[in-house]
Amino acid sequence: MAVGAPSAEPHAVRRPAIRRVIESVAEVLPWLSRRLRAVLADEDQGGDGKMPEPIRVGLVGARFAARFHFEGYRRVYGVPVEVVGVTSRYAESREAFARDRGIRAFGSFEELCDAVDVADLCAPGAAHEPLAVEALRHGRHVIIEKPFTGYYGPDTEDFRGNVFPKEVMLREAMASCERILAAGRQAGKRICYAENWVYAPAIQKEREILVKSGGQILWIIGDESHSGSHSPYYGMWKFSGGGSLVGKGCHPLTAALYLKRTEGEARDSKPIRPATVSARTHEITRLKTYRDLGFLRTSYDDIEDYGQMHITFDDGTVADIFSSELVLGGVHNWLEVFANKHRTRCNLNPIDALETYNPKEEFLRDVYVTEKLGTKQGWSHPAPDEDWQHGYPQEFQDFMEAIAAGHEPLSGADLARDTIAVLYSSYVSAERRGAEVEVPK
After folding, report:
1. Model confidence pTM above 0.70
2. pLDDT digits (tens, 9 = 90+) for 278-329
3. How far is C-alpha 248 from the chain's CA centre?
4. Separation between Cα atoms, residue 158 and residue 239, nearest integer Å
5. Can you state the angle between helices 166-187 and 413-431, rounded to 10 degrees?
6. How many CB atoms lie within 10 A of CB 352?
7. 251 exposure class (CB count in 10 Å sphere: 0-12, 13-18, 19+)
């Protein structure tokens, strides 16, 4: 037979062999297995068995988050995806972003929605709810960067988040969540919550250990901290929706909620959810006694720069989550799980896959080492692939698979809602100097 010539073997005879291949890849490449099954099913129903058109994605926002989201889509495999374009508040930034990446710059959100299947919201948190609801009403799937939503004030000049009543914040934040979820249900579209920690290889390996061993998590402790956000919007509650708890604590918190949810679903087909929280927040760099040597960011208006949360779950087990803007030496991202059958420490950053000694700062001037490191001189741990170890490519892979195949993503609307419920209940607790507060269901 000539190379490339079609097989004379009847298609029906080859089909059992094709199905065996599908089953053989199901464990390691579940998306490929699902797609091949869909193609065969389409043929069985008289279709042509062709792969679908690319999922068209539009980015909303043209700053930091949009940049790494765009790179994440470039690494999606097995699912046809096209980033069509971008829109943002400022014409100059969206046009520069689009020009650098060879995509369209849309003059409005409505124009973008008309041209895409998925609206990826990388805008500031205060814009998430109205954008998400509008996109869903247009019949578009949405990807929502953290924070999912929140409370950003009454839009008055005298609003200061650190003294505003936290019960009002909690009530309004939960109402915002419900409006987004209701719009998703009505539209029948996917809501994907862009929490990369859920997809980090270390967290996913712990999930595998937990599920396959039938373990019970007794205690989780985790932290995300560094020397201060680069965002000009961070530091003002009306833009960020909170401080260290919302901006950093959301990451290890959502990972902890995800693992407990997974534990319950694996064992009892029912998620284990947060029940209560006790929390404290502090404004350390605004203390009169703070000695500022210039290494930490201090330009905060009305947010906390340190927070801790103690969560109890439905089954009585606990988690302790820390977050701050007080840590030098790079991003400090880790989660430790204490179970009845094992103990796992998930290190997201730093990791020691690579260790480099550099005698002079200037030698690594053009080398990216790791986020928020501060100095490249001396010993450091350059990240071979920081996006991968943080779960960004895996996140967008899952979102595209979920949208294409019509199933829920690992990080979806229900997990996002529970995260917001814990965060804003934590602010209520902190306002009461650490009193235990029930988390809304």
Report:
1. yes
2. 999 999 999 999 999 999 999 999 999 999 999 999 999 999 999 999 999 9
3. 11
4. 14
5. 170
6. 7
7. buried
Residue 286: both structure tokens together: 């605004």
Q: What are phi and psi of 304, to 5 degrees?
A: -80, 150
Phi-psi region of 27 (alpha: psi -120 to 50; beta: other; left: phi over 0): alpha
- The domain ranges of the chain are 11-44, 55-194, 202-438
Residues 6+ apart with CB under 8 A from 234: 240, 247, 303
Burial class (CB within 10 angstroms; exposed 0-12, middle 13-18, buried 19+) of 441: exposed
Calculate helix-pair angle for 201-213, 250-268, nearest 10 degrees. 20
176 burial level (CB within 10 Å; 0-12, 13-18, 19+): buried
Token pair in block for residue 127: 């814009």
CB contact at 8 A, 112 and 105: no
Max alpha carbon distance in the chain (Å)? 84
Helices within 6-127 (DSSP H only): 11-25, 30-44, 64-74, 91-101, 109-115
pLDDT in tens, 217-271: 999 999 999 999 877 788 999 999 999 999 999 999 999 999 999 999 999 999 9
> Under CATH, which architecture does the 55-194 domain have?
3-Layer(aba) Sandwich (3.40)
**Ramachandran area for residue 153 (φ above 0: left; ψ -120 to 50: alpha; else beta):** left
Instruction: Give the architecture-level CATH label for domain 202-438.
Output: 2-Layer Sandwich (3.30)
DSSP 8-state secondary structure symbol assigned to residue 247: I
Cα distances (angstroms) measured from residue 245 to each of 143, 156, 172, 335: 22, 23, 17, 16
Do residues 119 and 135 lie in contact, with contact meaning Cβ atoms separated by under 8 Å? yes
For residue 3, pLDDT beyond 80: no
